Amino acid sequence: MAQSSDNAYHDPLSGRAPLIVGGHDFHSLTEAVAAPLERKTPLGWWLFFIPSLAMLGLFGLSIGWLFWEGTGIWGLNNPVNWGFAIVNFVFWVGIGHAGTLISAILFLFRQKWRTSINRAAEAMTIFAVMCALTFPGIHVGRVWVAYWMFPLPNQMAMWPNFRSPLIWDVFAVSIYGTVSLMFWYVGLIPDLATVRDRAKTHLRRLIYGIFALGWRGSHRAWLHYERAYLLLAGLATPLVLSVHSVVSMDFAVAQLPGWHTTIFPPYFVAGAIFSGFAMVITLMVICRVAFKMEDIITVRHMENMAKITLLTGSMVGYAYGIEFFIAWYSSNPYEFGVFVNRAFGDYAWAYWIMVSCNVISPQIFWFKKARTTMAILFVVSIFVNIGMWFERFVIVASSLHHDFLPSSWDYYSATFWDFASLIGSFGLFFTMFCLFCRFLPMVATAEVKTVLPGADPHAGEERIRIEPGAATVRPATEGAG
Amino acid sequence: MSQHARSVSEQQFYLPSSGWWGNLRVIGLAVGVIAAAVSALLAAGNETQLYYSWLVAFLFFLSIGLGSLFFVLIHHASKAGWGIVVRRLAECTAACLPALLLLFVPVYLGRADLYHWTDAEAVAHDHVLQNKVAYLNVGGFVVRALVYFALWSFLALLFLRLSRRQDATADERLSRQMIRWSGPAILIFALTLTFASFDWIMSLDPHWYSTIFGVYFFAGSVVACFAFLSVITLTLQQAGCLRDVLTQEHFHDLGKLLFAFTVFWAYIAFSQFLLIWYGNLPEETSFFFGRLQGGWLAVSRLLAVGHFVIPFFFLMPRSVKRRRPLLLAGAAWMLLMHWLDLYWLVMPNLHGEGPRFSLLDLTCMLAVGGLFLAVLGTLLRSGALVPIRDPRLLESLSFENS
Amino acid sequence: MAVIDLLVPKLPDTEVYGALARFPTTRALYRACEQVRDAGYTRWDAHTPFPVHGLERAMGLPSSKLPYIVLATGLGGAALGFLLQTWVHTSAYPLVISGKPLLAWPAFIPVTFELGVLGAALGAVIGMLALNKLPMYYHPLFRSRAFERVTDDGFFISIEAWDPRFDLDKTVALLRASGAEEVEIIPGERSAVAGGGAEVEGGRG
User: Which residues are C200's β-sheet partners?
Assistant: First the structure.
């Protein structure tokens, strides 16, 4: 985690503002992050928690009713035999990816600004993966034999079909959840030690102490710790790419027009990061105000996230364009027909919501004013999440409902229980996130300390000196090339 | 003081006026012209082979130029600090792209041999090609090629010019200008590269299509760029330039990026393969069908092992990336593998049964390469090898890996 | 061997565990580490709230062996995954699926890759905890009240009494001379049993 100073305070290029403002030192930072955990629960927290808990209750109810009655309570039909369940699954996995991107990929790219948001983003990943994993579990129909998905020796001598992307999903998403959980926990250890050492009551010291594993800040330990962190970041990066690629292959390995296209893996990954960053922006806009952390999660952090949103949104737009072009270029009437139908057929309303939310709305982030205004960030991030949900819905529903044989065509309408499961999954997510904010340090304190000015023992020392050359030096010619 | 300051002599920022690098423009020009003449001679009566070999060579150096342009753009867009010391080299490499328009002419001349859709007779009997005529026609092909080169030249020269101007004026506003241009430039870059790869490579088999193809060519280009940058910086250091400017830390980073994009290339290549293999649709599998049979099967295996498995394990250890001779070997190997990748993309359209290496492959590479390097040599000579007045140069020079 | 033996370090039965010094800044800590290293101590450590860049150089520590562990567990996981799938599809439960060969290796790659990553990640986490001998809930340094700042803003060096070069007066003097704001003697096992507290020797070094 310790990296060479990037002279954030002495940066001659004013475009890179200081990372942490407000003149924080190490102790005030510890106070700012740990104090919310030690205060009495604020009323605002309850205002978020109670409705989330209610939505979670709805989720439990809809799952219970599903198990009792069966998948007929959903609006599934032939040919649209995959509906909200798979859309919600892909949606939540996608949201999870931004957390890993912020933790792992930005770490590998030495983007120090990630340190203020990576803890909350990683937590978001874990909760999003929890939401995602419920859907494959509950949508199988015969839930009582769901364990058949796992390679467990059994008396029937049957094994799962490892050649199916549905099994690849089981492995990919559960391994992703496990690795994200480990990565998040490893990052938490020093911060849990901080809370442990500040604990005033015996119970607090005991509970936080158990999970802090006796961490003492020993540098011999930091050495192995940092190496583990770097390795986990290096592993999590291809994991993110592979997980959403595997998810995309649920569709792309089929022969269905609109599903079978080679660009799906990187397109889904870009889309996942896009929706995930939008969710992080939504959460951070609220949290930084609610927990008074505007000094730590600054405007610069929000602006950088907006830029990444714009970048990945453009990648998604690129994929839409290329898919459409190749659908025409392929001279395959079914392929082209699907794309025309998407834009002008029965689901045109969903398609245009998707395009306006995903392609048009993020374009406002070309303007610095938009990137740095919290209200615009909040609104656009919500639009992006809506748009990305609709993208998966369009892919699933519009491709299935209008496939090769006209006699098979049928329209899919979601039922109350479809919506209940969607809203309920948000309940699970926000309940977990509220609990996280209340009981765990929201900011990776130890990591943020490494970007404060006092952290580098060699700050301010002259490292490099350019000596003027001898007479053989050739002067630079202006405007050459 | 626990760390001593490293001093860098300004002399190292410039190309020497003699030796291989100093005379690169003359050497390159000579080699290029002679090789082109030899190619023309060898091709008498066998023009098809010439055009195919020339296309591979052209694409090789085009991809290096485009990859370098991408490096410059993403460097500015992300406001990266470490890479400032190599940025000028990438800018100069990208600025060779305008010259590639000239080297594109043989591709245009060979269109009848290379691209079957130019044959009106063939199109008249093929309804699939008839449906594509709005895109696959010679007029559109030419206009698009001119547009690609116009946009690439504009972007490459813009960034080189602004960067060189900063050498003279040390104006911080130029940095901000380059950052502002980088965003839209990336969009333009992505679209032009994609459609160029469709036009020049994918349409070699006009019945085949793949939405990921632009990304595949892009991945290969970025690998080629990092390999090329590593090779030229390491050989420049051997010639005495940039000795103290680029340290082990910078090479470590170049090695890391080479490693990462090699893995990315493998991911894209495998995605394309797996989806086409799995769906088993004849209009898509035609691409792999020929390449996994006969002589081409060996080449495909060599590509998988040489372009992915070997560099994956070779470039993984930290110590390899920090040792100059090893990194040079790895980078040179990746350039060879990138050439093989392009050969594997293009040649099966000419030689269906297996690779038929011809002397023309070599002479075309020397011709295109000689001329490319001649332009590069001219550009490197005419200014500093490093953006000497970039406001963040000191940060880049003192960069340390964790 | 009881589980408790894994969580609790085996320490020699001495009066004194060692000396603990606190430094005001990372720079002071860095310089002090160099001095302690140069004086030839081996059983010592620095303690910081966050990893200080380059401190392992100042302490003369070798780099971590964790990457080798991770490579091994990663390759092991991947091999296990590929072998499992191959065995299942060619021997245990062979079915012709969509006309593809039984050993459909392209389709085996995703699970192979995922299990490789899982193996590597488990190797990294468990390997790191093992190398750091964590969890270790009991450690003599926790006897010091001043040490509570180690997770907040305190930078410490601790030198254990059974280091061959340890001498109570000389070691404390070295620490004070290298810039310590506070030096504390941490009681050892014999003393803690007797319920002794820690003597704090304050004063700027």
Answer: C184
